[in-house]
Amino acid sequence: MESNRIQTAFGALKLNDVLLDVLHKEGYLTPTPIQKRLIPVLLGGHSATVSAQTGSGKTLAYLLPTLQQMNPHATPVTHHYPKLFILSPTKELAQQIYEVSKPFASALGFRVVLLQGGGKRTDEVKRLERGVDIIVATPQRALEHVEARRIDIKAIKHLVVDEADMMFDMGFVPYVEKLFAAMTERSQKVIVSATITPRVVKLAKAYIKSLRRVELDPPGKIADTITQYLYPVVRSKKEALLSWLISSDDLKRVLVFVRKKELADGVAESLRSWGYKVGILHGEKMHQERKKSLLAFREGRYQILVATDIAARGLDIANLDVVINYDIPHVKHDFIHRVGRTGRAGKAGMAMTLVSPDEIEQLKDLQKVLGSKIKEVILPDFAPKEIKARRYLLQPSPRKRKTPSAKAASTTGVSKKGKKRKTTKRDGWKLLDAAKEKKKRGRK
Ligand code: AMP
User: Fold this and answer.
1) Residue 60 and residue 334: Cα distance in Å, rounded?
2) What is the tens place of the pLDDT at every residue in 222-246?
């Protein structure tokens, strides 16, 4: 019975039995709103720009209809004939899309090849030579293979550009344009992001004659399932506050975003010195190291992953307790993507943002993009003097855990029940203050 219901829910979208079977096996019960909207448009052969919230199921929304349109008997499988090409701005997202596509592709008898900067070129060449139907790639590496004539771009019937606005931010647009220009006009092009910007639409219009716009949510809208808190903090106490938030709320899987690579290294180092198991993910780390860190974090061997905004796009990490923004990102839209690593597929999520007085202008700009203010939590041990003068703002708990307000009470050393709070070695803020005090004394 259950199976019939599932078949009907996705079956109503006119997906074929092979795809319906895999959906069933993978545990997808009903299509998400973006899947309901996009699948018929793409099955109709149209090109589209797609804007829907982070974590809304966009990957399957473009994968299922493009896969279904690929006829396994149309061309023999040779390395010259990939039919579906999916571009991702980051290696990690490319890897994830590759993993999501594999069961569907193999059930249909298609071969998928992943091409990503940092991956071994010779291995990629061998895989391409064995024959390929679907390519998932980062743009620069993809173009290298195209220019070496290992891929016949004219054979491509469907192109997906995921996280399209990040292609601009990372300077990948020339690569994308070369691919667009080399493809036939008739091929289907799908351009996707939670934050489709006007320049993305302009690029799409320049290359695509008849373009549908599938907008489920206004670009940049944060999912209602995500509860957010803003913590004003003295800059020098940020690391301490971070450690304190993690330990006092017993957060098991924490993704920390920082603006800069050096800062990611520094913050991770401090957290490690306080006994946490921490991975680092940023653009200057070697490919294998990035892969290892993300895997260890996904598998729970690292409690914390400190990352720059390359990890903000598209990554789907199960059971993430919280995203902590150590700072406000340089590109405001990245904030939406950072926060969007939680609260995925309709589940509850939580995001905390630390803001120091020197970031107030950036915060104001961000709030303009968000269209609303984030709830503020003032912790007297960390907040700047001018903000401490205000009264505490107590917030309800989003997940019946210890609330920020309860935490605020416990900064005084007294728990809700009136017992003395046990100080752990992870009480970073105390360590930091003590170290500073010592330094001061040393200088005298
Ligand atoms: P995406 O936006 O494609 O990264 O997907 C976000 C999350 O939603 C992933 O964990 C997917 O596995 C999940 N997801 C996608 N489609 C469905 C669906 N129809 N039902 C339940 N979960 C889904």
Assistant:
1) 22
2) 999 999 999 999 999 999 999 999 9
